[in-house]
Input
Amino acid sequence: MAAPTAPLRGYGDMNMQTIDPRRFRSVMGAFPTGVAIVATEWKRELFGATINSLTSVSLTPCMLLFCTNEGSATGAAIRKRGMFSVNILGQHQSELSARFTGKHRNRFEDLAVAFSADGLPLLEGAAAQLCCRVTTIHKAGDHDIILGEVLSGQEAACDPLVFHKGAYGIFQRAFGQKW
Ligand SMILES: Cc1cc2nc3c(=O)[nH]c(=O)nc-3n(C[C@H](O)[C@H](O)[C@H](O)COP(=O)(O)O)c2cc1C
Output
């Protein structure tokens, strides 16, 4: 394989060029993800938003993170409550994903919602559900990185909803082998 012709640019390079945000968004769309709804309850109101920035972080203790836009009403409620649920969507739930990103007046209206022991909303029919306690919030550009310690988790026998290049899809096992 041919060696790179130019040195990689580093943090210290004042002439460093940055990628256009729209291009960055498009390029990152090449990375397929699952889809989840993060949710919480604050002052008797339910909040929930669709995310795909979910990542597991640590096993001891069990931690995960997601990123939330600084204008997110759900992110603000999660910061105030200090706890949140993560509802990982199944392949049959793309309409739910659209509802929790759109202008629906009450996103929880007519949905089957259960509540954790801590009163966190859990969307029934999800592929998996986790309950978390906020441990740290880092500012990162126009988003907050919310780190949570995972208190509980459960999963269902259900294939996941997938998001790739701005479109929903389904997961297809390729090689008949598990990692
Ligand atoms: C597939 C998908 C993934 C998304 N991922 C994120 C995300 O990781 N972080 C984020 O802040 N917004 C994400 N959004 C956008 C939010 O769902 C959207 O801004 C939502 O309206 C926020 O609601 P809120 O203001 O009630 O919090 C995503 C939207 C879609 C459709």
The radius of gyration is 18 Å. The helical segments are 21-28, 73-81, 94-99. The chain has a mean pLDDT of 92.
